[in-house]
Amino acid sequence: MNYAIIGNCTSAALIGPDASIDWLCLPFFDSPSLFGRILDQERAGFFRISAEGLKSIRQEYAYHTPILKTRFETEDGVFEVMDYMPRFLTGGGDVYCPSEIHRNIHVISGSPRIRVELKPAPNYGLGAGSFHIYPDYLKITSTEGEYNSYYVYSSLDFSAVLSGKPVMLEKSSYFLLSYHEKLSRVDQEKVYLEYEKTKSYWMDWVYRTRVPDQHKELIIRSVITLKLLMFQRTGAVIAAPTTSLPEIIGGERNWDYRYCWVRDASMIIDLYARMGHIHSSERYIQFILERMLVKHENICVMYGINGERQLAEKELGHLSGYCGSRPVRIGNAAYLQKQNDVYGELIEAIYSNFVVNSRSQRDFDEELWTAVRSLANKVIADWKTPDCGIWERRGPEQHFVHSKLMSWVAMDRAAKISDFIGNDRLVPQYLAVAEEIKQDILLNGWNSEMNSFVMYYGSRDLDASNLLMLHYGFLDPQDSRIKGTVDAALNGLVRNGLAMRYSAEDEFGQPKNAFIVCTFWLINALYLTGRRQMASEMFSRAIGCVNRFGLLSEDVEPETGRLTGNFPQGYSHLALIQSAFLLETDYQWGNGGRLLPSRALDQSGESFI
C-alpha cells in the first residue's frame, strides 16, 4: 500500500508512486469516486502526471504538512508537482476547505516535457467521463449513473492535455480540479497564494502540537493523518477514506470505512481531549448530541458523515477489486448491528473531555448530562444481552467479554461524571451496576484452564480486545488474570512479531493477517505488566510496517509486512500515538491521567491537533 494521502477535512485523495491520483471522491469523503483505480486498474479512472525522458522520480511530504511533493528529473530538465487540497483560515477566522484538489507544477531547471493522463470515471467507474472545453475551464460530466460534474482549471492548453501528447513546460503551471465551478478567476497567482496559505496553516498547526521527541516525525505524520479524517462540516470522524481495500488479498473481507464509527471516533477524540485539544473533541460530541435529539433516541453503532443512520450495503459488480479482491462494497451493513461496547467508548470520551482535563462544572451543560444519563440507562437495560461485538461478527450474537468491559467503563465513568458535576444521587446506583458487571465478567469471561479471559462467555477463543482491560483500568497490571491474558495473547495471537485480533475461524473463514491496532494494544499491555524491553522490541517491529510516507492501513501480512485493508486507518494511527507516549513518557491511559497540552490553541477556536 505504497500510497500517500492528501486532504483537507472535506475529502481526501490517494496518490501513487507514479504521481497518479488513484482514489478521489468529490465533493465529500463518501461521494462516488471520480478516480478509483485502486479498485479497478482498467475502468475506475485516474489522473497521472508523468515525464518524457524520465531519469528519476522522488516523493516526500512537504515539511509537517499533508502536501505531497513529487520531483521529476528528466533528460530535458527538472520539475516538481505539489499535490494538496486547500485548507487555511480566512480573514474572518473560518476554515476554507473546498471540494477541490490542486496540482501545482513548478519548473526547477530546463524545459522538461510532461505527459498528462486525465482519465475520469465518475460514479465508481460506471462509465468514462465526458469532456467539454470552455474558454476558462474543462468540464467533466458523468455518462452513466447519477449526474455529476467537475471543473478543471489549468494554465496549459486543454486540447494538448487531452491529446495525451507530451507538453513542454516553459514555466510553472497548475491544475485545479473542483467539484464546483469557481466564481473568481483562477490563475497562477491564486493557486500559488492558496498553496502558501495551506502550507503555513499546517506548519503552524503542527508547531502547536506537543509530541514526544522519540519517533517525533512518525507521530506527527500520524497526528496529521488523524486530523485529515475529521469531517469539517459536522465534526464526524471517519475510520478511513477508502472502501473495499481487502483485509486479506483475494478474499472477501472488503468493507466501506468512509463512515463515523462511534467506537473508533470516540477513542480518537478521547486522545485529543487528553492532549488538551478540547475544540475538536467538543465538535464530535456535538455531532453525537445532534443525533440524540430526545431522551429515548438511541445511539447508533455508526453514522454517515452528515449523521445518516441508514447506510445500506451493496456490491459494485462492475469493479474487479483491489488486486482482484471482490466484492467491492459501498455502504456498510454493520449499521444494523447491536454493539454494546459503543456506550463505554462514548462516555469515556465525554469523561476525558471534562473530568480528565479538570474543566469547570459550568462547561458541562444540561443537554450533555441528559445524554450521559440516557446512555447509562441504555447500558443498565442492555448489558446482560448478547451483541455482535467490537469485531462486528456477522454470525450469532454472543456475550462478548469486551462488550461487557465497555459496559463497565460506561457505568464507572458515568459515576465519575456524576460526582464531577455534583450530582451525588446517581453515583451509588452507577457504581453498583459497574460492580455487578465486573463480577459477571470475572465469573463468566475468565477461563481458568486457559489462564486467560476469552472472546465471549463459554468460548475458548482468544481476543486481543481483552487487552484493553489495562487501558481502561479494569484490573491492576499486576493482577494474575491480566498477566495470564497477556501471556495467552503473546503465545496464541502473535505471528512474526505482530498480533492478530483473534485466530479462531469466523463466518468468512480463517483469519490470516495481523491487526495493527491489536499489536499496539499488546505492546501497551507488555509495558504495563513490566516487560518493557519486549514492548520496545515489538514497537520497533510495528512501526517498521509503515509505508514510505509513514502511513498505516488496518492490517498487515505477518510474513511479508505488506499492508492490507482500508488505508490509511485512523484506529492504527491512534494506537501508534498512544504506544509512543506510553513508552517514552510512561503515560497510562486508564488511570485518569492527562497528557501535556499543546503549546497553544488558536484564538479563533480552531483546534491544532
Write up what this structure looks like.
The chain is α+β, with helices and mostly antiparallel strands and 609 residues long. It has 2 domains: 4-207, Beta-galactosidase, Chain A, domain 5 (Distorted Sandwich), CATH 2.70.98; 216-591, Glycosyltransferase (Alpha/alpha barrel). It contains 15 helices and 28 strands. Strands 6-7-8-11-17-15-14-13 form an 8-stranded antiparallel sheet, covered by helices on one side. Strands 1, 2, 3, 4, 5, 12 and 16 form a 7-stranded antiparallel sheet that branches. The radius of gyration is 25 Å and the shape is globular. Residues 594-609 have low confidence and may be disordered.
Mass-distribution shape:
globular
Uncertain parts: 594-609
- Total strands: the figure is 28
Strand residues, percent: 15-25%
Main pleated-sheet profile: 8 strands, antiparallel
Structural class: alpha+beta
